[in-house]
Amino acid sequence: MKTRLCPPLSVEDAARLAEAFLLDEVETFAELPAVRVSVAYTPSEAFPAFRRLLGDNMIPWMSAQSPGDLGNRLYSAFAAACPTWWPVVVMGGDSPDLPVARVEEAFHTLETDAADVVLGPTVDGGYYLVAARQAHAELFREIPWSTADALAVSQERAETAGLRVCTLPLWEDVDTIDDLRRLRDRLAHAPPLVAPRTRAVLRTLGGF
Questions:
Q1: Which domains does the chain have, with CATH numbers?
Q2: CA distance readout (Å), 21 to 44, 119, 136, 143
């Protein structure tokens, strides 16, 4: 749930938005050819709730997030996927209108060996996407998560490790109510099939 949206949103409305974000992302990127979508959820006891939300077809591709900070959870997601899935793109559940082309570009960059790591930067200094062909622990250790330096430090760690980095165009994820207002404005000018579940929830929230 997006707790930083409360207030002005209620806890219930923030939870409904988080569900809509996730469903929009899963449904959008599951349509990409040869892409397998997996959902890492938290807390571990939330499996029944995510099963109800995502449906039985997603059960083989759902797993509880590892304990620890964001870096450990990201690394664990890569470590679990990379032995069998190649390459791997990991993104958060807070970019429901992210263009499909960004994810396609990340896969293409890795498949053509144009880079070892792909990062999708956000306007607040973090990133909305990280992709690689294998798990690189150095990318996720001692990163100042949730700060304006997260992306820069991640890039520095990658370069120090001798990894080639490709950076995608900027995009916005949703952390604050101002981010949510900008998402609402973007969707007002986007094609109607972009993030339909998020649109439906936003219509019920009034002006916030």
A1: 3-203 (3.90.550.10)
A2: 20, 21, 28, 25
